[in-house]
Design brief:
It is a single chain. This protein is α/β, with parallel strands linked by helices and 210 residues long. It has one domain (14-209): P-loop containing nucleotide triphosphate hydrolases (Rossmann fold). The protein has eight helices and five strands. The chain has helices at 26-37, 47-53, 62-86, 101-104, 112-115, 120-124, 155-169, 184-209, and strands at residues 14-19, 41-44, 91-95, 129-133, 175-178. A five-stranded parallel beta sheet has the order 2-3-1-4-5, sandwiched between helices. Strand 4, helix 7 and strand 5 form a beta-alpha-beta unit. Helix 1 (26-37) packs across helix 8. The protein is globular and about 50 Å long.
């Protein structure tokens, strides 16, 4: 799927979003894939973790949650564009994407995408492919003891977020699910294979278009 060129866009090879509910393994997979492929890949870090670890307040109050999701959306979008500008021609692996905020948007505060001045379809078009890492919570596994100290979700909340995120992303024409596996190692191997397969497919499609 070609992404519309807009003012401020910079050429980059492919833009792949790694997403999913909390505790899915996407951050680990992104780091391992970058190490495997080397300088051909650039990872766009998760905006929420950057903000919260940097001191951005975190609150359950609806107006505060709304403010946080606005900040995360704009930081995520600009991080992606910044990395695309710095590393034209490389594969961008995005740890989450601009669509994710809709799953965290507080109930009763209206439509997330309208509040951001965009649409879900427009944000899906930012990415050439989506690899969805199903949360470990789908298998009843606690995710609060993960390697991310800013993750606060229990099993039930993580499972609901996973379902909401999957519904938001699954319309993408290059949506690839990496299901939960009791073996984290096997899941990561499957995730790496999914990323590798998508990159190969994108290269093949690009070659036919030339």
């Amino acid at each position: 799927m070609s992404r519309p060129v807009r003012p401020g866009d910079r050429p980059n090879h492919f833009r792949i979003c790694l997403t999913g509910g909390p505790g899915g393994g996407k951050t680990t997979a992104a780091d391992l894939f970058r190490r495997e492929i080397g300088e051909e890949v650039v990872v766009v870090p998760e905006a929420a973790t950057m903000l919260f670890s940097g001191g951005f307040p975190r609150s359950s109050e609806p107006l505060a949650r709304e403010a946080a999701q606005r900040a995360i959306f704009h930081v995520q979008r600009n991080l992606e564009d910044l990395q695309a500008a710095r590393y034209p021609g490389r594969i961008l692996l995005c740890d989450r994407g601009t669509v994710d905020g809709a799953a965290y948007w507080p109930a009763g505060r209206g439509d997330f995408f309208s509040a951001m001045g965009t649409t879900r379809a427009e944000q899906l078009q930012r990415y050439d492919a989506v690899v969805f890492f199903e949360s470990a919570a789908a298998g009843g596994v606690e995710v609060m003891e993960s390697n991310n100290p800013w993750r606060k979700e229990g099993v039930d909340e993580a499972r609901e977020l996973d379902r909401a995120l999957r519904a938001l992303w699954s319309d993408h024409p290059r949506f690839q699910l990496v299901p939960h596996n009791p073996s984290f190692f096997k899941k990561i191997v499957a995730g790496l294979a999914a990323i590798e397969s998508i990159v190969a497919r994108l290269r093949q499609e690009e070659g036919r278009a030339e």
